[in-house]
Amino acid sequence: MTKTRAIVRNIAEEPWQQFPAHFGGALSKALVAPSTTGSGLLDYRISTYAPMAYVERHVHKVQEQVYHILDGEGLMELDGEKRVVRKNDVIFIPPGCWHSIRNTGLGQLTFIVVTTPVTDE
């Protein structure tokens, strides 16, 4: 078994990406992920969405997620219920919960997404 080593990364080292099912300038940096650090149980991303950008509604079978809104305003859908989210809101999403997030504000919507485990589907 290969041991994962501890690392320090600067956010500038990881390029912005538009992952599948993300649209309109929904960009993320996969700061801690199997592909970037060799992590096995954690995916940690920072995302910034331009006005009107969104991720389409989706569900995870076993993943838990936490969204932490750092700046901006958007609309979060959780199992069909829509709620405005803004700076300092923290959203917990359990497995089996259909969800999406959309920037409905006037400026950038910036947030952290933490997911575990990373391999569920």
TrEMBL record:
Gene3D superfamilies found in the cross-reference section: Jelly Rolls
UniProt entry tagged with the keyword Metal-binding: yes
InterPro entries registered for this protein in UniProt: Cupin_2, GPI/OXD, RmlC-like_jellyroll, RmlC_Cupin_sf
Highest taxon of source: Bacteria
Keywords tagged on the record: Metal-binding
Span of domain Cupin type-2: 47-114
The protein's name: Cupin domain-containing protein
Species of provenance: Chelativorans composti
Origin organism lineage: Bacteria, Pseudomonadati, Pseudomonadota, Alphaproteobacteria, Hyphomicrobiales
